[in-house]
Amino acid sequence: IVTVNCARLLKADHHATNGVVHVIDKVIATTTNTIQQIIETEENLETLRAAVAASDLNSLLESEGQYTLLAPTDEAFDKIPRETLNRILGDPEALRDLLNHHILKSAMCAEAIIAGLTMETLEGTTLDVGCSGEELTLNGKPIIANKDILATNGVVHFVNELLIPDSAKTLFELAQESEVSKSTELFRQAGLSSHLT
């Protein structure tokens, strides 16, 4: 699937006497902002804006290159327990891992993303793309709220749920999501859960 500034290429290579015509499915707008400038100007990215500044990712997101930012909205951050969010925001390494897990190494417009694709993030982790009806899913969840916001150095998709990589979780959080949840409960009953957190 070929896209031109996130417009889908419908028909290619119509040869004319004075050139070539390619038919696309939308009007291409002028793009002037970097990904960083989009983060700074969008109202519902306040928490992301602070997180990017705290992790020194500003320079990457305003540099030349082609990236895809899966931008968690304020709503996405609000869904996380306050204690967990404060822990991640207060841990520079976990915060950087979290944000890098939301950045892809290439510009991927929604039209060009094929279900069944595995995409690699800057953190080196992967995200699985699928479908739920007409909606794209990430790791099985239809969480893309707004797509194809073009920047001079890539594209931004808003997501309404945070994608937390394992490297940004505590042992307790990882254990609760796995086959050892009963063991975790025994640690808690024994008063040892603080070691896992």
Q: Which secondary structure elements does this structure contain, and how are they paired or packed?
A:
Elements: E1 3-4, E2 7-16, E3 19-24, H1 35-41, H2 46-54, H3 58-61, E4 67-72, H4 74-78, H5 82-89, H6 92-100, E5 103-104, E6 118-120, E7 126-132, E8 135-138, E9 144-151, E10 154-159, H7 171-176, H8 181-189, H9 193-196
Parallel strand pairs: 4-10
Antiparallel strand pairs: 1-2, 2-3, 4-5, 6-7, 7-8, 9-10
Description:
With 197 residues, the protein is an alpha+beta fold. It has three domains: 1-29, no CATH class; 31-164, FAS1 domain, CATH 2.30.180; 169-196, no CATH class. It is built from nine helices and ten strands. The strands form three sheets. It has a four-stranded mixed sheet. Strands 1-2-3 form a three-stranded antiparallel sheet, with no helix packed on it. Strands 6-7-8 form a three-stranded antiparallel sheet, with no helix packed on it. A hairpin with a 2-residue loop joins strand 9 and strand 10. The chain is elongated and about 80 Å long. 25% of the residues are buried.
Q: What's the CATH topology name of the largest domain?
A: FAS1 domain
Structural class: alpha+beta
Low-confidence stretches: none
Mean pLDDT: 89
CATH class of the largest domain, named: Mainly Beta
- Radius of gyration, in Å, reads 20 Å
Q: Distance N terminus to C terminus?
A: 45 Å
Total number of helices: 9
Major sheet: size, sense and barrel closure?
4 strands, mixed
Strand order, largest beta sheet: 5-4-10-9
Gross geometry? elongated
Taken as a percent bin, the fraction of beta residues is: 25-35%
Please, what is the CATH homologous superfamily of the largest domain? FAS1 domain
Write down the domain tally.
3
CATH architecture of the largest domain: Roll
Order of helices and strands: EEEHHHEHHHEEEEEEHHH
Organism: Formicarius rufipectus
InterPro entries: Adhesion/Biosynth-related, FAS1_dom_sf, FAS1_domain
Protein name: BGH3 protein
GO molecular function, one term: cell adhesion molecule binding
